[in-house]
Amino acid sequence: MLPEWILLHAGLMLTAWVLVLPAGILIARFFKVTARQGYPRVLDNRLWFKAHVVMQYAGVICTTLGLALAWFHTGRLNLSMPHTLLGLGAVALGWLQIIWGVRRGSKGGPTDPAGMRGDHYDMTPHRWVFEWIHRGGGYLALLLALGAAWSGLRLVNAPGWIGWILLLFPLLFATAFWLLSRQRWRVTSSYTAIWGPAHPQPGIRLLVPPAHHDQRPEVMGRHTSSRLGLILICVLLLLAVWRSRTAASH
Question: In this predicted model, what pLDDT tens digit does every residue of 188-198 receive, in sequence order?
């Protein structure tokens, strides 16, 4: 029987990286515009942003508590172990996401009391860098956390079926990502969701402008999201094959 602190450590980490943080990513990517919102008559639906922030903060706090718990009970962090390095990388990226999010720049635009000019409305270089690093850092953190989870199972000699259950959750995430990306109106940039299709974001071309107020815009990011979802599914399936071959060799 494993010590209680290890079970609690694993529970905190899995809750953060398997449930809370992936759900926050899906909300931010595909729920900027909702089915009942009445877009583009109704713009700047803040529900997705609030849910994303709450979930990301909750997830990072959970993973930090899990790290602190392991550090307290072991008295050190063994940097020669892949589990430690992968876990530290995921936690560090989680906090960098929060810090970078706070420093994402000013908003601007007609709805900003501070005035029209702003990093987001003007799409300044600072905002472009934020968009790419924030999105890429989140996906990288998930991959590091998945590696940390698998290496952790090996450390405690967990039964093989637990690893397959663990793999099921990222597969579900990747499948949901791909399926949602096929619904064209869901893949809307934050710029278009806030200010509407009448203000096309610099560098992002609207493929089909909406013919009337109930039609959603198609944006260039739809195909990228669909490909990314398929890539995630393929990578996870390859990891599953690799894991099964490794288990068979032992």
Answer: 888 888 888 77
